[in-house]
């Protein structure tokens, strides 16, 4: 897993390195500029040599300082470079000022208004070094520029390489206008057209930042490349701060999923999934099949009497047991071999769902609550929070999250006014602390947090985009995946992270045309690809 930093964490790491004498701020800025130029030519080798023109837009802080380094290095590599500054050169921070002066020895710096007033783009490469991690408020006067950049990113590729006027756009650290912690744009009522820049390529430093993977961040960054700027491993700092670090879930190791060669089915747990009544049974069957495919030794679907025939006609490897209401569930759970429970998909939001949830939670087994098992508590979430325990995982989508945590959802939905803005990471952490269990908050940027503050993002963005997951029932399959992993003995956090990651892998394996039934059927191929 990779760690994602906030602006404050990046500054702390930078500060620690500078104070230890390991590096100076000016050296870091030079390496950042070098990293950007390296990434540009790696992405577009055709920009090297020949008659190429670059425009570099520099801002009033250190992001602008990186821009002056980029301008100098591009010029050294043979580009014709024009530089525009937003703000007052006399107020630049010291390192940025030093690089401004260095550039000024060989080139001119014009005010940004000269560029934005001009006709067309007039370059092959546009470097956005206006704002990075220090952006703290909206920039209404840049709305028009941002809007044009979005247009350029959308239209890119048609004439690039043939006709000047459709530049490749590179963002230094972030497309300007995005909050680096939350990925939100800073809106402003006076802004024209757009609130943040767009880019084809974003080059960041040392480690990715949270905002590259949250909210609008991923959409506007294009592609993110992270360049090493020689900051050390900062082991001490990490030891003190590990809980506050957000992880990006990456490729999982096959050992994670292997089954012992000599184990029998009860070694891998027995998951119980509760079905809704007749006519509402498909969701639970999707979850049950997901739990079985992901490796639970046994999976039983608990069905009310009214739906027994319907379920029996549609199940083979998944077993079926009649469970009528909370009393029936209490009796079944006397069998301690049921070591994971999944409730919610298709369960309905009547009072009997509440009774089932309360019974399941009192049994104190690893439990996944999804869909109706969450919605049922919209009017009284505190009743639910009072019973949830540390072995639970709840898996709300945006609507369910809002019903359970209305005040947190309101903060998350509020427009960013000052930076750093309240993020989906902040929201999920706060929700997990309140619920007292793992919360998996769905979306292309699925965020998972536990009550201790550990947090990770499962990204279905960039080259892991999986828009076909937005299909009815895919969340039910995820709930099943997580329950199956709980049955196998994964901890709630591990089960949620692993289930979410495999869910996206399955969607990508199948690709366009995916429907929920297809997801679990991709698991064998995904496991094989992992080397299992
Ligand atoms: N940390 C590191 O390790 C490294 C960092 N590096 C680079 O530094 C960047 C961070 O630099 P940074 O902190 O100077 O912030 P930056 O993004 O340039 O913007 C702040 C400036 O903008 C101003 N300002 C803010 N909002 C505004 C608005 N709406 N409209 C107008 N002005 C506004 C704000 O003014 P103030 O809020 O103080 O009034 C301040 O002057 C980082 O992204 C990376 O590129 C690399 O060199 C490598 C090592
Ligand atoms: N555009 C998208 N890109 C990636 N994943 C998505 C996207 N839209 C939805 N998902 C994922 O699909 C699943 C949908 O779950 P949910 O909304 O509960 O659906 P349902 O209730 O129909 O099963 C979640 O895991 C969510 O993260
Ligand atoms: K930028």
TrEMBL record:
Homotetramer. This is Bifunctional NAD(P)H-hydrate repair enzyme. It comes from the Bacteria. Pfam families: Carb_kinase (PF01256), YjeF_N (PF03853). Its EC number is 4.2.1.136, 5.1.99.6. (6S)-NADPHX binds at residues 62-66, 132-138, 146, 173, 283, 346, 397, 476. Keywords: ATP-binding, Isomerase, Lyase, Metal-binding, Multifunctional enzyme, NAD, NADP, Nucleotide-binding, Potassium. It comes from Parasedimentitalea maritima.
């Amino acid at each position: 897993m990779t760690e994602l930093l906030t602006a404050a964490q990046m500054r702390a790491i930078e500060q620690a390195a500078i104070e230890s004498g390991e590096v100076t701020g000016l050296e870091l800025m030079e390496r950042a500029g070098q990293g950007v130029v390296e990434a540009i030519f790696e992405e577009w080798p055709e920009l090297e040599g020949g008659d190429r023109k670059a425009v570099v837009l520099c801002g009033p802080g250190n992001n602008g300082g990186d821009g002056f380094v980029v301008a100098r290095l591009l010029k050294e590599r043979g580009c014709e470079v024009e530089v525009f500054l937003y703000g007052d050169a006399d107020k630049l921070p010291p390192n940025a000022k030093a690089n401004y002066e260095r550039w000024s020895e060989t080139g001119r710096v014009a005010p940004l208004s000269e560029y934005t007033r001009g006709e067309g783009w007039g370059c092959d490469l546009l470097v956005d070094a206006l704002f990075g991690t220090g952006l703290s408020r909206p920039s209404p006067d840049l709305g028009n520029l941002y809007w044009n950049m979005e247009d350029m990113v959308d239209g890119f590729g048609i004439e690039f390489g043939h006709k000047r006027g459709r530049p490749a756009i590179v963002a230094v650290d972030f497309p300007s206008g995005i909050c680096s912690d939350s990925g939100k744009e800073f809106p402003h009522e006076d802004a024209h057209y757009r609130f943040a820049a767009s880019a084809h390529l974003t080059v960041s430093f040392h480690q990715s930042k949270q905002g590259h993977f949250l909210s609008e961040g991923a959409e506007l960054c294009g592609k993110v490349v992270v360049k090493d700027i020689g900051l050390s491993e900062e082991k001490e700092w990490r030891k003190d701060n590990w809980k506050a670090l957000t992880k990006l879930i990456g490729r999982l190791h096959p050992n994670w999923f292997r089954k012992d060669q000599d184990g029998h089915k009860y070694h891998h747990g027995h998951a119980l999934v509760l079905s809704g009544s007749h006519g509402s049974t498909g969701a639970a069957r999707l979850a049950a099949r997901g739990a079985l495919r992901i490796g639970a030794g046994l999976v039983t679907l608990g069905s009310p009497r009214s739906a027994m025939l319907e379920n029996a006609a549609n199940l083979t490897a998944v077993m079926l047991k009649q469970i009528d209401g909370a009393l029936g569930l209490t009796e079944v759970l006397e069998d301690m071999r049921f070591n994971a429970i999944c409730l919610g998909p298709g369960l309905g939001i009547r009072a009997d769902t509440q009774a089932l949830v309360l019974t399941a939670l009192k049994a104190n087994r690893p439990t996944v609550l999804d869909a109706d098992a969450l919605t049922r508590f919209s009017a009284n979430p505190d009743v639910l929070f009072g019973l949830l325990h540390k072995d639970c995982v709840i898996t709300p989508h945006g609507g369910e999250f809002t019903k359970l945590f209305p005040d947190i959802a309101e903060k998350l939905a509020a427009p960013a006014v000052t930076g750093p803005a309240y993020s989906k990471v902040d929201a999920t952490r706060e929700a997990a602390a309140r619920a007292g269990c793992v919360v998996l908050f769905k979306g292309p940027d699925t965020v998972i947090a536990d009550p201790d503050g550990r947090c990770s993002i499962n990204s279905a963005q960039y080259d892991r985009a999986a828009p076909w997951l937005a299909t009815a029932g895919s969340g039910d399959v995820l709930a099943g995946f997580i329950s199956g992993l709980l049955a196998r003995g994964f901890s709630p956090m591990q089960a949620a992270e692993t289930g979410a990651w495999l869910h996206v892998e399955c969607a990508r394996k199948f690709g366009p045309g995916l429907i929920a039934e297809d997801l679990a059927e991709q698991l064998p191929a995904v496991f094989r690809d992992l080397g299992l």
